[in-house]
Amino acid sequence: MKSRTAIGLGKTKAVTLRITGYVIGLSGIAQCIIGIVNSGKPGADATPGILGIFFLLLAAFCLYCYRRSTQLMADFRKYNAILASDPVKTIYRIAEMTGETAETVRNKVNRMIEKNYFVNAYIDQSGKIVLADREQMNQVVGNNDDRKDFITITCPSCGGVNRLVKGQICKCEFCGAYISDKN
User: Fold this and answer.
1) Cα 76–83–6 angle (5° rounding)?
2) C-alpha distances in angstroms, 64 versus 17, 58, 60, 125, 129?
3) pTM over 0.85, yes/no
4) What SS3 class is residue 153?
5) Cβ(160)–Cβ(141) under 8 Å?
6) What's CA 27's distance to the chain center, in Å?
7) N-terminal to C-terminal alpha carbon distance within the chain
8) Tens digits of per-residue pLDDT, 16-52?
9) Position 146 pLDDT exceeds 50
């Protein structure tokens, strides 16, 4: 379900960004100090001071990218733990479990998929279900196709996708509203 290569590259990238940010930041501080020391001299060049400010901005950008990368890896670990028990979860269910909004979860999962943190993962056409492995999902759907007594219902209250036995009334697993196939 997860790509060890992507995680390894993610960690390498994060460490590289962190070290690069610190080195460039120290260079920027040194350039600023040189610029300040030389500013009092007649005919002094302002280049070291300007270069120092540029280096400090570049260092801040590197450290921002580092922070963002490590946060995405931490979110991946959390989402991976959620999907490990059941590879089919709705965006709303993951949002409920993590205390985030559904849109935030959707954006984070899309970034993780784009960066190959999840292997064979995708969000289905309705945009509501995160499937960890297409092949495994095909087996689940294939097994349930033999049993025609299960149906998929979209909750009219929250829009959550629920599976239930045809003809039964049950509670939505997301909002608790009663749903049935007769709505």
Assistant:
1) 35
2) 9, 10, 6, 33, 31
3) no
4) strand
5) no
6) 33
7) 36
8) 989 999 999 999 999 888 888 887 777 777 788 888 8
9) no
Q: Is the pLDDT of residue 57 over 90?
A: yes
Give the closest residue to 79 by CA, choosing from 55, 115, 53, 51. 115
Contact (Cβ atoms closer than 8 angstroms) between residue 121 and residue 6: no
Tokens of 74: 């931490």
Side chain identity at residue 96, one-letter code: E
Quote the tokens at residue 145. 């196709």
φ and ψ at residue 169, rounded to 5 degrees:
-110, 130
Name the maximum alpha-carbon separation found in the chain: 90
Q: What is the DSSP string of 65-91?
A: HHHHHHHHHHHHHHHHHHHHH-SEEEH
Which residue is it, tokens 């299960």?
150
With contact defined as beta carbons under 8 Å apart, do 129 and 105 qualify? no
